[in-house]
Request: fold
Amino acid sequence: MHFGYVALLGPPNAGKSTLLNQILGQKVSIVTPKPQTTRNRISGILSDEHGQIVFLDTPGVHAARGTLNRFLVEAAWQALSASDMAVTLLDVSKMVHNPDAIAENNRLLSKVADAGLPMVLALNKVDMVSDKALLLPVMENAAQIMPDVEIYPISALTGNGVDKLLQAVWQRLPEGSPMYDEDQISTAPLRFLAAEIIREKLFLELRQELPYQTAVAIEEFDESDPKRAYINAVIHVAKSNHKGIVIGKGGATLKKIGTESRQEIAELIGMPVHLELWVRVSPRWTDNPRAVLELLGESDLEMSMDS
Reply:
């Protein structure tokens, strides 16, 4: 039997959350077309006859400017330091017409290598490459840069190649007994997962950059009534004019976000949900270290207050 923690690392929008959901066969990490959707270290637990893997989905590693972005990148590196191995994902669909583009991720790849952990490289989104012959130069270039790292072309969306990648992960994990119940799929509390679902609906519904200026905090999560759960959530926005955008004309946008969130949360917890959403202006919260910690504090991450 094997047990270990595996960090999923990569630039924004590389498909880490999609891969985690594909491996588990169900959704534990939110997915949107927008980069930098993941803000916290999200855990997903895979249990089978080989043992147990705790995957750590991480925010995309990028050039960090501003308090919130530094928090996101720090979250990724903390996951790496807490892991037994790393799976690094790159979007191969962005590289097929420029095989040297893998060098643009040298800082990421070098830092993962410097951690001294077993690592495999997954070239994701092969389903978006119609001419598969274009993949070969990218793989050859990657092999030259990282001769000691095994490379796996995959599609996290369709599952193509994921089984081989998973087999490679099992082979590199230390021996050990499972630490979690075999039917547990995440270490994250339900209130955190509920907040993530609401935030996903915000990302999918709101235009342009506004989602990056929003955060969701669960102020009440009451399951004492066996017939219905009661959830009170606050959507924080950075500017007063954002509040009207989130609410929408006649409250239509907020109502749609609430309806879609309530349905998915009910499926998650297995009972009907009464969901109340409120919108609150928290000026420039993304630039305030204390506010970032408070609003994203559902995770087990830490960030120095003077960073």
In short: The chain is about 35% helix and 20% strand. Residues 298-307 have pLDDT under 50 and may be disordered.
